[in-house]
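Troubleshooting log. The previous structure file for this entry was overwritten by mistake, so regenerating from the original sequence record. Sequence copied from the archived sheet and checked twice against the printout by T.R.
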Amino acid sequence: MGEANENARWQGGTGTRRPRVVIVGGGFAGINAAEALGKLSVDVTLVDRRNHHTFQPLLYQVALAVLSPAQIAQPIRTILRRYSNIEVLMDEVMGIDTGGRSLALASGARLGYDYLVLATGATHSYLGHDEWKPNAPGLKTLEDATEIRRRVLLAFELAERQMVEQGWHPPLRFVIIGGGPTGVELAGAISDIARLFLRRDFRHIDPAESEVILIEGGSRVLASFPEELSALAEKQLRKLGVVVRTGTHVTNVEAGWIMMGEERIDAAVVLWAAGVAASPLGRMLGVEVTKRGAVPVNAELNPQGLREVFVCGDLAHFEQDGHAVPGVAQPAMQMGRHAARLIAADLAGRPRPGFRYFDKGDMATIGRLAAVAKIEWPFKARWGGFVAWITWLVVHIYFLIGFRNRLGILTSWAWTYFTFSDSARLITGDQTLPGWQKKIDASGKPPSTGE
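Regenerated output below.
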């Protein structure tokens, strides 16, 4: 009897067992769906190729060595351990059989479901130029964050070594492509590191003389924010010494330099924050997807013709009041919880309620003690500067999962911002930068301008 139940569980059989819900993805949507489903009479399996949930809004703080990875991540099992009806599998979905209601996993197993919640988020989009990726990493995972940290910190170390050995170094120029929240946050944080946190650490170079360039193809940074906040953000960036170039498109990215039309800009580090694409899992459903790979869903978060499948977060394309709901944490959390409500309605024999995104506002931090905030609830407000930064800090600490994470981050921020010291400034892995050595000729003299 036990073997039969196990086969039903893994192959999608029905019998007398409770409905099985499979959640794919342990991000904001997946975790919120799981926590809500943990209170229902269903069996839940959450599948993720990583064993941890990452608080993505703070990834850039890991990338720029303000926080350590463990402060913004927590094991998925730990988050969900109080729910006896939830199991967690560290595996990857390789195929979806919507007709047979089963998933093919990388381990070779097949996992059956009665309901499927897809919440695998988004990845980087290099706008048809995937060859740029090795020279311009993006920021979506902890691995991305530690790689960016390695490159940024290594640039200063290599410049110091070059000064000691040969008396000169290539320009310390950091280029960020994309003026959305991630690009703005990276640009401001790199400027802070160079001007404040590294100012007493080196003997032969002055980190404050480095240059940070933020490139945005549109007419303004933070295009999703009101124009007055966008203008304020640009003003604060310029105050930090960041060179902001809007209405400019990058046409090529090579090791150690980029092209904007006929203009070449040498760079010690190039970072990508210009585009995202939905997880490729959406295409496995066999339904039409948007240009960026997102799955159009109705008010019940279902793709066309798939009532038992719910698509949430960045993977979903949901339109409300004539506009697509943004692919950020807040709607992902709401979608995840709503998917659980829809399943609860089915179990109770009630009509399914339609999803409606409740926009509470948006925020972006620009640098030390500077941010912009668009508040929609519990009141409407537009803030910038220190007040917005405090708002940003309180909100992000509040939504962190786990008391240990909140306490650790609050302590780390307090220590870092008041002492200008940092214990997370570690370089691991390779000690080379793309294109750096090409800037150094055999004689130890600066390369010619035509190189």
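The domain at 130-274+362-439 is CATH 3.50.50.100 (FAD/NAD(P)-binding domain). Archived copy saved in two places this time.
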